[in-house]
Structures are given as structure tokens and as C-alpha cells.
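Input record (one chain):
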Amino acid sequence: MTEYYIPTGSSQTELVEKRSRFIGQVWRVSSEAEARARIEETRKKHYDARHNCWCFRIREEGTERYSDDGEPQGTAGQPMLNVFQREDVTDVVCVVTRYFGGILLGAGGLVRAYTQAAKDALDAAGISVVRRWAVMEVPCTYAQFEGMRREVLSFGGTVEDVEYGAGVCLSALIPEEAAAAFAARVRDVSAGAVEVRETGERLQAVPRREAGE
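The corresponding structure, as predicted from the sequence alone:
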């Protein structure tokens, strides 16, 4: 199963470098038209800014675009795009708005500032992985709960929900190719006391990195 990465949510961050304000924004988008609409929306909102530099990557369309919006060539849009390429994040648009503070930063300073502004905005948005998951139920005792939760995480999964009653039942998403190995591992570590139930499968985005991490 092919997996890919997208922003978990939207974000806005701010960086000040030698009195210039760099406002970074990230959104999840699914088309170039949607990306360009976000860019235009930001331009209208920050019409009084010196620059509104941007980049986007669209997976389905295989599209990557960027703009320095009046900054020296290669100092803004491309460094911003590089941030998302390094993290392999797609279906994303980023706009960094600069309010000039009166002090020239030079080419190197601009590259560093736009790179940091894009990275800060991505970190604030978080990163999710989109892939196919097996939906698993893990019924266990309260004493086994933490151990079962660790097993879910060790297989690259996530705990979606926990039901508490006479015992505990974890509802977990496990990468579909690891489902059988996960069930076997749980039987092994619990000496057969915990029997995992697979209840279905789902294509879903799950946070790989929480916002702000």
C-alpha cells in the first residue's frame, strides 16, 4: 500500500528577523485551483505587505509551483518548497507574507528566514500519513492496558478509542500489512490471554507528527 503525507491541519505562525515580520501559513488542499484560491485570499488579506511568497504541491495532479513575489530570485519560493519536499508532504499550500522592517537581509538571510517561516508553519500544522489501516479491537485487562498500547505504537499504529468496563478494549488502527504480525505478537506477549479482533479496514489520514511537535 502506497502511503503519503499531508498537513494535519491549517496553521499560522510568525517570525521576526531584523524587524521584518514573516507570517507563515499552511493549508491542506486537493487541487491547484484550491491552492491558488488560498494564495489570492492571503494577498487580499495582506494587501499592504511587501511580499506574499508561496509554494504548493498537489499529489493527484503531480504539480509543484512556487513564487518569490518580488524577492530576489531563489531566495523565497524555492527554499519554502524545499521544506515540504524534504518532509515529503503533499496536498499542501504555504504562503509566507513579509512586512519589510527597513533592514536588508541579503540573499542568505532571506533564504534562512523564508525556510524557517515555512518550517515553523508546517510544524504548527502537523504531519499526517495517509494509508490503508486494519481496524483492530484489543480486549484486555486493566493490568495489560499499557502493554497493549505500547504494542500498538511499536507496530506503527494508533489507538483511536478506549472502552472501559469490567475490562478494557482498545480500538486501534494498524498498517494493514502488519495486522497479522500484530495479532500474533499480542497472543505471544499475553501468553494467549488476549485475542485481537480485526473488524475492517479503512483508508485514513493519521497524525505522524502532532501539531507543534
